[in-house]
């Protein structure tokens, strides 16, 4: 199994779910043969986007990530194909309750990339469960006051998970998302970069209608609007993520 990347945020509405889907598309475009999405958000937005609401609402707990986190079933037991070639998903459960000692049983699958979407609450056991299964974490942040205030909670979780349970985990960085050309976004982006320096992605994701249109269609932006500025930004984020992970590996080997 290749890279396992969790997207985490302390605040909802930061583009976390759409970023998971769009990075999956960028990875497939980059030559990956198989990408697995794991939906650990009980809102099930990612699952409903790629499988359809009716299918997801009809799933029993033992057909979802609930059983995978409880380790009563493996990812291979519940994984589903999507309409996108090479893209698989372990779907969410609408009443997901991850036990405190929950751990993802990823047996039965061997994708090139795993992307885990998590609920917007770093206190949720699902978030810690996802992080313990991951070797890379990315945290989207909207450059607004509430977004910056959420950074501290994510930092605390990263420290506790990294120091106690998963020392192989790499924090790839803060991804500034849903950026608009307004003064507040400029000021908050500059503040985030001043406070957190190189841990902030160089590339940003714009606030664009194309993202919503792609999400509504249940496909990555790189397939829905491959020549759009939004798609170019997603490919740039994918490439920068790979660069950051490789740089971290080189530092660890030094």
Could you characterize the architecture of this molecule?
With 254 residues, this protein is α/β, with parallel strands linked by helices. The protein is built from 12 helices and 7 strands. A 7-stranded mixed beta sheet has the order 3-4-2-5-1-6-7, sandwiched between helices. A hairpin with a 5-residue loop joins strand 3 (80-81) and strand 4. Helix 1 crosses helix 12 (229-253). It is globular and about 50 Å long.
What number is the mean pLDDT?
91
> What is the second-level CATH architecture?
3-Layer(aba) Sandwich
Roughly how many Å apart are the termini? 24 Å
Low-confidence stretches: none
Number of strands: 7
CATH superfamily: P-loop containing nucleotide triphosphate hydrolases
Strand order of the largest sheet: 3-4-2-5-1-6-7
Total domains, how many? 1
The succession of helices and strands, N to C, reads EHEHHHHEEEHEHHEHHHH
Bulk shape: globular
User: How does the helix and strand content classify structurally?
Assistant: alpha/beta
Q: Kindly state the percentage of residues in helix.
A: 40-55%
Q: What would a concise description of this structure say?
A:
A hairpin with a 5-residue loop joins strand 3 and strand 4.
Set down the secondary structure blueprint.
Blueprint: E1 3-7, H1 16-29, E2 35-39, H2 45-51, H3 53-57, H4 65-70, H5 75-78, E3 80-81, E4 87-90, E5 113-117, H6 125-132, E6 136-141, H7 145-149, H8 151-164, E7 170-176, H9 183-196, H10 209-217, H11 221-224, H12 229-253
Parallel strand pairs: 1-5, 1-6, 2-4, 2-5, 6-7
Antiparallel strand pairs: 3-4
Helix pairs in contact: 1-12
